[in-house]
Design brief:
It is a single chain. By secondary structure, the protein is α+β, with helices and mostly antiparallel strands. The protein is built from 3 helices and 6 strands; from the N terminus they run H-H-E-E-H-E-E-E-E. It has one domain: Nuclear Transport Factor 2, Chain: A (Roll). The termini are far apart.
Length: 131
């Protein structure tokens, strides 16, 4: 995926890249922002979505609407090729309706393309137990 259009050079840029792909209606681009071994806890009361197929499943319901992802990074801590981020976010449809929102916690990891991608994505905070 070295020819990806949007690459997160810092962990804090992952959401920005996901947002750009979401607005472009590019599901493959969104999936490229996730580590192949990722786990996505959304909705938080369901078992995690796993791997790139799980990332695709998590976003396919939003992609046709081409919504805007509004994300404000609260924290970014980097240790080598692993990072912890936290953000406040909303997904807003073109008419201004809020489709989803939350306070996220994510673990990011360096990807093969040199950018960063989500390894563990908890859009509504960490679940109490793993699914």
């Amino acid at each position: 995926m070295s020819n990806a259009k949007h690459i997160a050079r810092r962990p804090r840029e992952i959401a920005e890249c996901v947002g750009a792909y979401l607005k472009e209606g590019d599901l493959d681009g969104i999936v490229s922002m996730f580590h192949p071994d990722c786990r996505i806890y959304f909705p938080p009361d369901h078992p995690p979505r796993v791997g790139l197929a799980g990332a695709r499943q998590a976003f396919k319901g939003f992609i046709d609407r081409r919504p805007e992802l509004k994300s404000r990074i609260i924290s970014e801590v980097i240790a080598g090729d692993i990072a912890l981020t936290s953000a406040s976010w909303q997904v807003v449809d073109p008419d201004g309706g809020v489709l989803a929102e939350g306070q996220s916690i994510e673990v990011a990891k360096k990807l093969d393309n040199g950018g960063w991608g989500y390894l563990i994505d908890c859009p509504n905070g960490a679940p109490l137990t793993e699914g």
